[in-house]
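Internal tracking record. Fields below are filled automatically when a chain is submitted to the structure queue. Please do not edit lines marked as system-generated. If the sequence contains nonstandard residues, flag them in the REMARKS field before resubmitting.
Queue: standard
Priority: normal
Entity type: single polypeptide chain
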Amino acid sequence: MAYCPECEASIDMEADDVEEGQRLDCPECGAELEVVNINPLELEVISVAEEDEEEKDNW
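SYSTEM-GENERATED OUTPUT FOLLOWS
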């Protein structure tokens, strides 16, 4: 079980089912989240600035 850092909704997932770096959307608020740790299971909101920086790195 993990919690959305944006809206604190519980997200039904187990650490065995995800990998670090995996991205998903919160089913409650729609925030884009990334798995930053699997033990304990921890999610972080992906900001627009982070996505822009990542796109620059891929060029």
